[in-house]
Amino acid sequence: MIRKARMEDIKQIHGLLKYYADRKLLLPRSISSLYDHLRDFVVWGENDGTISGVCSLHICWENLAEIRSLAVRDEAQGKGYGTRLVTTCLEEAADYGITRIFTLTYQPGFFRKLGFRDIDKRELPHKIWSDCINCSMFPDCDEEALLYEAD
Q: What is the pTM assigned to this prediction?
């Protein structure tokens, strides 16, 4: 069910992310950005071709990556898809030797259950803020920053 995203998934991924971005629950992603970062994404694909969930691992720096664009269709909520998608991204980070993974989120409780801890956003390098400049919430972002540190 979980697999790397493919070109034919882009429109569904965009629609799923747009659904939550329109509700101000995550940052919007353009179709162009999704194509540019296709290799960052994993999806929960159903047998009928429907994408029920998506998550991205974006490498930021030498030993720092970001979990972003986590979204699960309303009808698939509560089935563990989000947990499995994030866990898959954390495993991928480990494969790359990355031990520090952060997220900016409106759902901090979900990430705390997965071993992330709260941090001050100012602890993150300035490089990660490049996406924020295009956000409608910038500079008054109210997302919470959390960090996962692997052993």
A: 0.90
